[in-house]
Specification:
The complex is a heterotrimer of chains A (328), B (516) and C (231). Chain A is of the alpha/beta class. In chain A, 41% of the residues lie in helices and 20% in strands. In chain A, strands 1, 2, 3, 4, 5, 6, 7, 8, 9, 10, 11 and 12 form a twelve-stranded mixed beta sheet that branches. The radius of gyration of chain A is 21 Å and the shape is globular. The chains are: A alpha/beta (328), B mainly alpha (516), C alpha/beta (231).
Chain lengths: 328, 516, 231
C-alpha cells in the first residue's frame, strides 16, 4: 500500500516535469530498444528537433504488442505502436483503437502495400537459413525439403510471428494443399520452439540443418561477425513477406507528435538505421542505398503476401491443419 | 482431543490472505475482463499431455533421487558438502540456459551423440516426450534428493546404532528404519515435483518436438498473446488450479505425519556403512548423479567463457537490478514463509493455511502477471512498478519452496522444545528470536539461498512490466538471444549463473556459520 | 491450595480422573505403573492438557484461562529442559524474562542461581558441553528464578545415576524448603517417594487417588500398589 502511494506520488512529480516537455510514448517489441537495436539512435534522432521526450515501453514480441494494446484498452498511455506485422493488423484494426495515419508517401516494398491505419517501417522475406560448411546443396523448394532427410527447426505459429509467417507462407504458396505439405514436412521438423530466439539458438548449436528465419539473417553474421558461412536457401515457390508496421492510437493525447513520429519513420534518418540494427530491409530504401553485405543476400524472384483480411480469415483453419499434421 | 487449542496466528493468516489475493484475485481480474470462455479439443489434449509428463517426471525424479540420497546419507567424503550444494545447480538455473546446457550434452551435436558416433552407434534424439521428461528430471532431481536426504538425516543416529548393535543387515535396516521414513517423505516429494512440472512452459515446447508437447501453461501463453482470449486463459488457469488441488489432496491423503526427535546438538555418527560392495555401489550412484547434474551447467560455463572478454553494455546494471530484486524478494519471502509456517505448526486451521502456502505453485505466472497488469494499469503506469512487482511476485512464487523447506524443521523444533517454551511463556516475537530462528538458521540460510537464486533466474512478470530501462539479467539474456547475439547471451547467462550460485552459496553458508 | 475438583483428563483414548487437593509446602510423589497416566496428570496441572470435565484451581482461582507459561507452575520434563542453542545464562534468563532483556540486577540473580546449584562460572556454556547432572542442576536453577509456587517434576532425574539422583532430590528438598513451594514429583521408584515425599498419589486404573501419607501407603499398600511393586 505504502509503495503504491509512493509510486503515485512519484508519478505526480513525473507528470509535472512532463508538463514542460511533451512525452511521446511508443510501445514496441523488446529487441527494438536494446542498446544495440534501433531504439537509442531513433530516440536521439527524433528528439533532436521535436522538442519532446520520446519514451519507449516494451512488450516482448510483435504478438505481445497487440495483447498489450488490448489490455490497456482505451485508457492507454501509449501514443504509437511500433512492430505489429501484417498477420496481426486485421485483429489490431478490429479493436477500433487505431486511427488513420493519413500519410501517402511511397515505400519500396517488393509488393504493393498500403494500409490506412498502419505504416510499414521495415520488412523481410522469411527463409530457411543454413550453414554452407555443413550443407553444400540446400533444397530449392518445400517439396525438395520435405523429400530430403534434412532437419529443420521452426517456431510455433501460436506463439511467435515467424511461426505464423511460415504457416502463411505455406498457405500462400499451396492453398488447399497446405495440410499435405505440412504432413510431408513433419518428419523433417526436429522441434518447434515458442519463439525465434530459441529456434535460432538451437540452429547455431548445430541441433538442425536449417532454421526458419529471414533472408537477411546471414547479413548479421557477415557484417557483425565477419562470418560468411550462413546463407538463406531460395525456394521456387517464392518467399513470404513479413511487413512490420507502426500505427497511431486513436486515444493518443499527443496526436500532433504521433503524426510527426509516423512521418519521421519514412525519412532516411530512421530508415538508414534499420538494416544493421534490426537486420531487416528498410521500408523506404534510403538515398545512400543498403549497407555493404546486403548485396550478397539472395533476392527471391517471387514475393508472397496475403492481405491482412485474408491472413486473419485463413488463420484458424490453417492452424488446425498445422496442428493436426504435426501432432501425429 | 483436549489438547490446548492454538490461537489464531494473525500474521500467518495475513500472509495466506495475501497469497489468495495474488493468485486467485489476479485470476478473477482476468476473468472479469473476459467475454465468454470455452475450451477447444486442443486444450484438452494439452491437459492430458501436461498431466502425463508431470506424472512421469515426478515418478522418475523421485525414484532416482532415493538411491542418490541414500548414498549421500551413508557416505562421508571430502567435498561432500560442496558436491551436495553444486548438485542443486540445475534447480537454480534459468530455464533457457539450462536447456542449452542439456542440449550441449544430449543434443544432436552434444557430447553423448559424439561419443555414440565414435563408438559407431546410432545417434539418439532428445526431442519428444522423453526429452521433456529428461529435462524435468534434470531440474527436479536435486530438489527431490534434498527432500529425501533431509528425511534420512532426521532418522536419529541412535536408531542406526541400535540397528548396528542388533546386527541388522541392509534389508532389515531398509524395512525398519528407512522405509517408514520414505513412506512419510516420498508423497510430499512426488507432489512437489509433479506440481512444478505441471506448470512447465518453455522446456516442454522446446524439447517436446511439436504441438503434441503443448502444456496448459503454454496454451495459456498462446491464448493471452496471440488470441487475447482472456476467458480461455482464465479457464485454463482455473483448470490448472483444479489439477494442482487434486494432486495436493491426494498427497494429503498419502502423507503420514513424520516424527522427528530433538537432540543435544552433539555430532552424530552413523553405523550403516555396509561392506565394500555397498560402498562401490554408492560411489557409482553418486558419480552418475554428479555427472548428470553437473556436466550441463559445466557446458553453460564453457560456452559463456569466450564472451566474458566483451560483455554487452548494460550487463552490470541489469545484474545489480537482479541482485537487488532477489534480495528484496528473499527477505519478503522468508518473513512470509516464517509467519505462515509458525501459524501452520502452532496455530489454528493448519490445513487451510498450508494449502494457501501451496497456491503459488498452482498459479499460472502468466495469468498472475496479466491480472496484476489489469489491476494496476488503471491506477499507475505499470513500468513504474516493474521492479517492486517483480520482487513481490518472485517472493510469492518461491514461497511454496521456502515453506516446504522450513516446515519439517519448524515441526521438529515444536516437537522437541515447544513444551518447554510454552512452560516458560515464550511466545510471539520472543519465541521467534530465542527459539525458532536460532534453531532454524541452517535451514533458513538454505531456503534464503534457494529463494534468491530462483528470483535471480526467473523471468516471471518482468517481461510484462519492463521498459527499456529496467531490464533484469534474465531479460537481458533473452534480449541478446532475440537479436542474434548468442555469444554475448551465453556470457551474460554465465554471469547470471555465477551470481545466482554465489548468492545461494553466501546465504546457505551464512546460515550454517550463524548456527555454529 | 491446589484443588482438582472432579477433574477428568483425556489424552487420545486414555482417561484419568482426580478429585483432591494439595497445600502449599506439600511434597507429593506420583507413583504407579507405566502408562497409568502419571505424566498426564502433570500435563493437566501445567496446562498442556485441558480437562474435559471438572475444575483446576489454585488458591480458589480457576486456572483454565491461563496458558502454561502464565500458570503458577514450573515444570521439569524427562528431557529437553534446556534449549541447546542458548547458553546456560540465557536459558536461566528466560525464567525471568521471556524476551531475555535482563537488567543488571536480574543478570546478577542469574549468576546467584547458578552459584546456588553449584554451577558457578558456567553461565557462558551451552548445555551440550555439560554432563547430565549439570544440565539437571541448571534446569532446577531456572525454577528458582521463576519462583512459581508449584513445582512439577516429571521424572527429570531418571537418567541420572543413584548418587547423582539422590543429590538432586536433596537439592530439590532444600530449594523447596527455602521457597515453600508445593512440589509434585512423578517417580517409578518407591525409594524416591519415601525419601522425598510426605504424601503419595497412586495412579492406576484411570484414577489418580487421594494423596495419602507416604509411610501409611507403603505400610498398608492397596492391591494396585502391591501389583506394581511386585513380590
Amino acid at each position: 500500500m505504502r509503495s503504491s502511494m509512493f509510486a503515485a506520488g512519484f508519478c505526480a512529480v513525473a507528470t509535472m516535469a512532463a508538463a514542460e516537455t511533451p512525452v511521446l510514448t511508443v510501445l514496441t517489441y523488446d529487441s527494438f530498444v536494446t542498446d544495440w537495436g534501433p531504439g537509442p539512435a531513433v530516440e536521439k534522432a527524433f528528439e533532436a528537433d521535436c522538442a519532446c521526450d520520446l519514451r519507449f515501453t516494451t512488450a516482448g514480441d510483435g504478438a505481445a504488442l497487440l495483447a498489450r494494446v488490448q489490455m490497456e484498452g482505451a485508457g492507454s498511455d501509449t501514443d504509437v505502436v511500433l512492430g505489429l506485422d501484417t498477420n496481426l493488423t486485421a485483429a489490431a484494426a478490429a479493436t477500433g483503437l487505431f486511427a488513420p495515419h493519413g500519410l501517402t508517401g511511397a515505400n519500396t516494398l517488393p509488393v504493393p502495400f498500403a494500409d490506412p491505419l498502419f505504416l510499414p517501417f521495415d520488412w523481410g522475406w522469411f527463409a530457411f537459413v543454413y550453414d554452407r560448411t555443413r550443407l553444400a546443396t540446400p533444397p530449392a523448394s518445400f517439396g525438395a525439403l520435405a523429400a530430403s532427410d534434412l532437419t529443420i527447426i521452426i517456431q510455433d505459429p501460436r506463439s511467435s510471428t515467424p511461426g505464423l509467417g511460415l504457416m502463411m507462407w505455406v498457405e500462400a504458396a499451396y492453398g488447399a494443399r497446405a495440410p499435405e505439405i505440412w504432413a510431408a514436412l513433419a518428419d523433417n521438423i526436429v522441434t518447434v520452439t515458442p519463439g525465434w530466439s530459441e529456434a535460432y539458438g538451437l540452429f547455431l548449436e548445430g541441433e538442425a540443418d536449417m532454421v526458419l528465419s529471414y533472408t537477411t539473417s546471414p547479413a548479421y553474421h557477415l557484417i557483425a561477425e565477419g562470418d560468411d558461412t550462413k546463407a538463406a536457401a531460395p525456394f521456387a515457390e517464392g518467399h513470404y513477406l513479413q511487413v512490420e508496421v507502426a500505427g497511431k492510437l486513436a486515444a493518443t493525447d499527443q496526436p500532433a507528435l504521433a503524426d510527426r513520429f509516423l512521418a519521421f519513420i519514412g525519412t532516411d534518418a530512421f530508415q538508414s538505421l534499420i538494416p544493421t540494427t534490426n537486420w531487416m530491409y528498410p521500408a523506404v530504401t534510403p538515398a545512400s542505398g543498403l549497407p555493404d553485405g546486403f548485396d550478397r543476400l539472395i533476392i527471391p524472384a517471387t514475393s508472397l503476401l496475403l492481405s491482412a483480411d485474408e491472413a486473419a480469415k485463413l488463420r484458424p483453419g490453417a492452424l488446425d491443419a498445422w496442428r493436426a499434421a504435426l501432432a501425429r | 482431543m483436549a489438547r490446548r487449542a492454538g490461537a489464531v496466528s494473525w500474521p500467518g493468516v495475513a500472509v495466506a490472505a495475501a497469497l489468495c489475493l495474488l493468485t486467485l484475485g489476479t485470476l478473477g481480474a482476468v476473468l472479469a475482463r473476459a467475454e465468454g470462455a470455452s475450451l477447444t479439443p486442443a486444450d484438452w489434449s494439452a491437459v492430458r499431455f501436461t498431466v502425463l509428463q508431470a506424472a512421469a517426471s515426478a515418478l522418475l525424479s523421485v525414484g532416482l533421487a532415493v538411491p542418490v540420497a541414500r548414498a549421500l546419507a551413508r557416505r562421508r567424503f571430502a567435498g561432500r558438502g560442496l558436491l551436495i550444494a553444486l548438485m542443486g545447480a540445475p534447480f537454480l538455473l534459468p530455464v533457457i540456459v539450462a536447456v542449452l546446457g542439456l542440449l550441449a550434452v544430449f543434443g544432436r551435436q552434444g557430447v553423448l551423440n559424439g561419443a555414440l558416433q565414435a563408438l559407431g552407434l546410432p545417434a539418439v534424439s532428445v526431442y519428444g516426450f522423453h526429452g521433456v521428461v529428461l529435462a524435468h528430471v534434470f531440474f527436479n532431481l536435486p530438489l527431490a534428493v534434498r527432500m529425501i536426504l533431509s528425511g534420512w538425516h532426521d532418522i536419529p543416529a541412535e536408531r542406526f546404532r541400535l540397528a548396528a548393535a542388533l546386527g541388522l543387515g541392509p534389508g532389515a535396516v531398509l524395512r525398519h528404519l528407512e522405509w517408514p521414513m520414505l513412506r512419510a517423505v516420498l508423497p510430499g516429494a512426488l507432489v512437489a515435483v509433479f506440481l512444478i512440472c505441471l506448470t512447465s512452459f518453455a522446456v516442454a515446447l522446446t524439447l517436446g518436438g511439436g504441438p503434441r508437447a503443448t502444456t496448459v501453461e503454454l496454451a495459456i501463453y498462446q491464448a493471452l498473446r496471440f488470441e487475447f482470449d482472456l476467458g480461455r486463459a482464465a479457464l485454463l488457469a482455473a483448470l490448472q488450479f483444479a489439477l494442482c488441488a487434486v494432486a495436493v489432496l491426494a498427497a494429503g491423503w498419502l502423507i503420514l505425519p513424520g516424527a522427528s526427535g530433538g537432540g543435544m546438538d552433539r555430532p552424530v555418527q552413523r553405523w550403516n556403512g555396509g561392506g565394500p560392495l555397498a560402498r562401490l555401489i554408492d560411489a557409482g550412484v553418486i558419480a552418475a548423479a554428479a555427472v548428470f547434474l553437473l556436466v550441463p551447467p559445466g557446458m553453460v560455463v564453457a560456452r559463456g567463457l569466450p564472451g566474458l572478454a566483451d560483455l554487452p553494455a548494460g550487463l552490470w546494471a541489469a545484474a545489480a537490478r537482479s541482485v537487488l530484486v532477489a534480495l528484496v524478494s528473499t527477505a519478503l519471502c522468508l518473513v512470509a514463509a516464517l509467519a505462515l509456517g509458525v501459524a501452520i505448526v502452532r496455530g489454528r486451521f493448519p490445513r487451510t493455511l498450508e494449502a494457501a502456502g501451496m497456491l503459488p505453485l498452482a498459479a499460472s505466472s502468466l495469468v498472475l502477471g496479466t491480472g496484476l497488469f489489469l489491476i494496476l494499469h488503471p491506477v499507475i503506469a505499470p513500468y513504474r512498478l516493474a521492479l517492486p512487482v517483480t520482487a513481490l511476485v518472485n517472493a510469492a512464487l518461491a514461497l511454496p519452496f521456502a515453506l516446504r523447506l522450513l516446515l519439517p524443521s519448524l515441526r521438529g523444533i515444536e516437537a522437541a522444545h515447544g513444551r518447554l517454551a510454552d512452560a516458560l511463556g515464550l511466545s510471539g516475537l520472543a519465541r521467534l528470536r530465542w527459539l525458532v530462528v536460532p534453531r532454524l538458521r541452517p535451514v533458513l540460510g538454505f531456503a534464503a539461498g534457494v529463494v534468491a537464486a530462483l528470483s535471480m533466474g526467473d523471468l516471471g512478470v518482468i517481461a510484462l512490466f519492463a521498459d527499456q530501462g529496467a531490464a533484469t539479467l534474465p531479460l537481458l539474456v533473452q534480449r541478446l538471444m532475440g537479436t542474434y547475439r548468442m555469444e554475448a547471451a551465453a556470457a551474460a547467462a554465465l554471469v547470471l549463473v555465477g551470481l545466482s550460485f554465489g548468492l545461494f552459496w553466501l546465504l546457505d553458508q551464512g546460515g550454517h556459520r550463524a548456527a555454529s | 491450595m491446589l484443588r482438582l475438583e472432579a477433574v477428568e483428563l483425556r489424552h487420545g483414548g486414555f482417561r484419568l480422573t482426580a478429585d483432591w487437593a494439595l497445600s502449599p509446602g506439600d511434597r507429593a510423589a506420583v507413583i504407579g505403573p507405566s502408562g497409568s497416566g502419571k505424566s498426564t496428570l502433570l500435563m493437566g496441572i501445567a496446562g498442556f492438557l485441558m480437562p474435559v470435565r471438572g475444575r483446576l484451581t489454585w488458591q480458589g482461582q480457576d486456572m483454565a484461562p491461563l496458558p502454561p507459561g502464565d500458570r503458577p507452575v514450573s515444570i521439569l520434563f524427562q528431557d529437553h529442559n534446556l534449549f541447546p542453542h542458548l547458553t546456560l545464562a540465557q536459558n536461566l534468563g528466560l525464567g525471568l524474562s521471556p524476551r531475555l532483556r535482563l537488567t543488571p540486577d536480574e543478570a546478577a540473580r542469574v549468576d546467584a542461581a547458578l552459584d546456588r546449584v553449584g554451577l558457578s562460572g558456567l553461565g557462558a556454556c551451552k548445555p551440550g558441553a555439560l554432563s547430565g547432572g549439570q544440565q539437571s542442576r541448571a534446569a532446577l536453577a531456572r525454577t528458582l528464578l521463576r519462583a512459581r509456587p508449584i513445582l512439577l517434576l516429571d521424572e527429570p532425574f531418571s537418567a541420572l545415576g543413584p548418587a547423582l539422583k539422590s543429590d538432586m532430590l536433596g537439592l530439590v528438598t532444600e530449594l523447596a524448603d527455602e521457597t515453600g513451594a508445593l512440589v509434585v514429583m512423578v517417580t517409578h521408584d518407591p525409594a524416591d517417594a519415601r525419601r522425598f515425599a510426605d504424601r503419595t498419589i497412586l495412579v492406576s486404573g484411570g484414577i489418580a487417588a487421594q494423596p495419602v501419607p507416604t509411610e501409611t501407603l507403603f505400610r498398608l499398600p492397596p492391591q494396585a500398589l502391591r501389583d506394581y511393586l511386585g513380590p
